[in-house]
Design goal:
44% helix; 7-stranded mixed beta sheet; alpha/beta; 416 residues; 3-stranded antiparallel beta sheet
Length: 416
């Protein structure tokens, strides 16, 4: 049992938590831990060994440890001894972070941009700055949690629309009026691509601004990895682009584009930027070097797309319901948390490690093991993952997972 009394008394513990908090932990977590999870963590299984196939990260282009990036970071650590750590809003235009912001913005065919501590901070801070109680925010139902939290922090009325359904969005805008449409370009749990061209048309017809989170397409899609908005020729019609630089950039930062005329306004109203310290010198230098590496990584992008196509095709042929996405993120959506723990344990016992996504990252009945592919996967590693999936299919019966049954029901209804 997950013991609450460890909060209450210990030779090294500080003041005990309140009865109210203890009750809340018991109600919201302990029962889940003890029953659904069987007294062990759903998120942490085995420790990967040296021969494990790791599909639990986001370094899509496999650039961690790239010599040019490491050298830039090392040089910055050795050189920048007088670096001042302060809120990023105080940084002057001659600061290296400012050059990085402009480089990223121009790469995305936008005027200007702002670096943040994380993609979460970028989304939260931007929405706080550009939305308010008089601005309806229309969010795809699978939009990242940071986008929902940003709308909540802004006090904006939030209206979810059905995933990748532009016509449902259109009806909501007709009902609630102009505001801000918020989507991911590639969705982080399923690997589904947003129908951006249709969404832009609907947003413009409804006189709405548009925010596109490109966290999972920046670096992996588009010319020189500039993302889907650039790839589709839509950047000039998208008001704001945000991204986590902890995915294809394998760093620790976030980014938002802003019109040049709004930059100082955003800096003066975005709490995550105002009340967080700036990035460290070696982080800025590393990201600047990473941008150049990413722009020159066409072979890695091609490899990633080839790996993704093969893995999805093979899993589909084996009966795994991965139809909800198309890109490098693959959801093995087994449904319940106990079923997902079984799936995780079987995979890890055979040396295949994904990442478990459960509530609140998903709804309670849509728990999954997420596999994130990367350009560094060898053919033998792919063979091993596919052979593992083949061995497990008769045991797990993925064709009977809830998502597979829902898909069959929908197809039958459409055929009727």
């Amino acid at each position: 049992m997950y013991a609450l009394n460890r909060f209450r008394s210990s030779s090294t513990a500080s003041a005990p938590i309140s009865d109210h908090l203890a009750s809340r932990v018991s109600r919201e977590f302990t029962e889940r831990w003890d029953t659904l999870w069987g007294g062990r963590s759903l998120l942490h299984g085995r420790t990967p060994g040296p021969d494990a196939v790791r599909l639990d990260g986001n370094d899509y282009l496999n650039i961690t440890g790239h010599p040019a990036i490491v050298q830039a970071q090392t040089d910055a650590i050795l050189r920048d001894r007088e670096y001042v750590i302060q809120s990023s809003v105080f940084l002057q235009d001659n600061h290296p972070a400012r050059a990085l912001e402009l480089s990223l913005a121009h790469w995305l065919q936008h005027e200007d941009g702002v670096i943040s501590q994380s993609g979460y901070s970028a989304n939260l801070g931007l929405l706080q700055a550009v939305a308010d109680p008089q601005t309806p925010v229309y969010l795809d139902s699978l939009a990242h949690t940071s986008l929902w939290e940003g709308a909540r922090r802004a006090g904006a009325p939030s209206h979810p629309f059905r995933h990748n359904d532009p016509q449902h969005l259109r009806r909501l805008i007709e009902r609630h009026g102009p505001g801000l449409v918020v989507v991911d370009s590639v969705y982080s749990t399923t690997g589904a691509i947003c129908p951006l061209e249709e969404l832009v048309t609907v947003a413009e017809a409804g006189r709405c601004m548009l925010l596109v989170d490109e966290s999972h397409s920046l670096g992996t899609h588009g010319p020189q990895g500039a993302g889907l908005c650039v790839h589709l020729g839509l950047s000039h019609r998208v008001h704001f682009i945000t991204a986590s630089l902890a995915k294809a950039f394998a760093g620790r930062a976030g980014f938002m584009t802003v019109p040049a005329a709004l930059r100082n306004y955003v800096l003066s109203t975005s709490y995550p930027n105002m009340f967080s310290s700036c990035l460290l010198a070696h982080e800025v230098a590393g990201l600047a070097a990473t941008l150049k590496v990413v722009q020159q990584s066409d072979p890695a992008r091609a490899r990633l797309m080839g790996v993704s196509r093969r893995m999805r095709r093979e899993l589909t042929d084996l009966g795994y319901p991965v139809h909800q996405g198309t890109e490098q993120i693959i959801a093995l959506e087994s449904g319940s948390e106990p079923a997902t723990m079984v799936l995780r344990d079987h995979l890890e016992a055979r040396g295949v490690f994904g990442a478990v996504f459960c509530a609140p990252a998903t709804s309670r009945n849509r728990t999954m093991v997420r596999l994130t592919l990367h350009a560094g996967l060898t053919d033998s590693e792919l063979d091993h993952v596919i052979a593992t999936a083949a061995d497990l299919a008769p045991v797990l019966e993925p064709w009977n997972w809830p998502i597979a049954r829902r898909s069959r029901t929908a197809c039958e209804a459409e055929a009727a």
